[in-house]
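Course assignment 3, question 2. Fill in each field.
Student: A.L.
Task: Predict the tertiary structure for the chain below.
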Amino acid sequence: MTLSDKEHLILDAAMSCFSELGYKGTTIERVAKRAHVGKPTVYQLFESKLDLFESLVTRVLQEMKAEAENAYTTTASVEENKQAMIDAIVNHQQQHLFILQITQETQTLKLQEMSELRIRIEQHIVEYIKNLLETRLELEKRSPVVPVEVTAFLLFKTYIALISEWPLIGQPLDLKTISQAMLKLL
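Answer field:
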């Protein structure tokens, strides 16, 4: 088994552990056991639990980006591309909800390094959405009044609110409804 295969196994095991046990309840030992590797193997690839979590978040974001990029086609209209790209992002709702839940858990634990990670993640996502809006959907040419980064931020925060906060006051929304709500912002 290659190091890359082991890393994939460890990240899958980490996703399972973090989802089931939260950040506080997850240990490197539990992840190693679930991945069927030794603890030293985990530490060979990841410096700490925080590094492991950050790598897991990076993987989720890379998957989301790849799907959004693959959704864009030069032959489609701007409206069709908007729909396809939003759908690609929304399809990762469960993984995003998991990341959000972990970062919220760590806020209550007052873990400074996790707060910094959450801010970096949010900045990264907003910047990515901004780039999609500028390069793929040419939003700055069609809507010069509101800065593109503000629209990107609103899309991101709307998405987060719809998957994590709306279910507290209403029935959880299906992916199509979430997608349609986000498209209204564009």
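Instructor remarks: The first helix runs from residue 3 to 25. The mean pLDDT is 84.
Grade: pending
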